[in-house]
Amino acid sequence: MSGPWSEEAEEDASSLAGTTDVELIKRAWRNEKAAPEILQFEGPLVLRVREQIQLLEETVEESTENVSNDLVVSLYQMDLDRTLFLLRSYLRIRLQKIEKYMIHISKTNLWNRLSEQEKKFTKRCTEIMEKLLEQSVLARLPYGYESFLKQSISSEEDDMVPEPQLDTFVFCKAKDAVGAFQLDDSGDEIVDLVADDLYVIRYKSIKGLVEAGQIDLV
Amino acid sequence: MYGKRASQLLKDQACCENGQFTPFNSDLFDQVISECNEHSLQLQSLIRKIEEQNLDMQTTRNEDHFGAVIHHLSLVRNKRCLMAYMYNRAEIIRGLRWKVGPVLPQEIQEKLNYSEEEYFKNHSAAIEAYMSEMDLDLTVDMVPPKDPYIRVRVLDDIGEVCLDDHSISLAKHSLHFLRRTDAEPFISQGLMEEFLE
After folding, report:
1. Could you report the per-residue pLDDT of A16-29, keeping only the tens digit for each?
2. CATH number of A184's domain
3. How many contacts does A have with B, using Cβ atoms within 8 A?
4. Which of A1, A173, A187, B138 has the most CB atoms less than 10 A away?
């Protein structure tokens, strides 16, 4: 999914800004924050970031014990805090999206974008939600109207499931030029996506580019 | 008028949105439920009437048919309103878990009905299960950190607390210089505030 974290990259992280794991998680976090639907879970990246956090924590601890250079310690600490914030916020935004669209997610192939832990969380959330609505509303309604997913027995499909609004507008920016891109199926609207230009487009139209990592949301 | 009560239920809720939470309106809620059952009875009696006249259910388009349609649609609309009422409240309740923490203050607790209290507890437990599986507390660090340390004022007698490897005494009105992550839980519970000069 993401760039390789080789040893040389580690040595020369500053010149490769944009490919460090912290940069990558920042990007994943931004995309997740701006996208109306849940995106693919960045499993390996999250693991690597957690390892780095652990390393940083050890460094901070060592420097606190050995050196009395408070400035260095507080710089490390700040770096650590920022990375931790990104990670926590990333996971939190995902959980909050799950809370909002749990049923929609479990019914569609969005399900495959979740981590194992998130899947468990989704199942549990749905059960709890169902129990609440069952107890307070559904069990007290007449026969034919007590479904959790359908308005009534005569609905042909599930018509009571909240779904994310995919045609909402998002701000986005391409790292490299994408070129002429068709915004709708009819082919009437074509946009030339130039690198580093800022666009406001319906999420639905550029969904594929976001998923492929060709364009970033801001 | 059919559906009036249900829309009233949602209007009350919409009026004081913005995080404000109204007490569960069980009177109005129960009235809408009984309205639903009333619709169902009417609907069934109309259907029986059509059947007794030996008319075809699918093609009959007489006054009884349209009456039945009205009752059906009113019932469905009431159901949507009831579900939306509960669902929106559940959304606010979930938000409280992130903003306030696992224990709700008395004045909010009083506004929940029994099922909602259960819901809050269960949902809280689900989030905690996820966090312990990930071995990461997601309820701290709600805002991007500026400085790792902040100055705080203690608003209530908290007493002796162990932070990291040393313990400090958090007496009312005292000022401290703490790690942001240590102070955040206290701030969200209203026991401390950030001290700004």
Report:
1. 444 788 889 999 99
2. 3.40.5.60
3. 112
4. B138
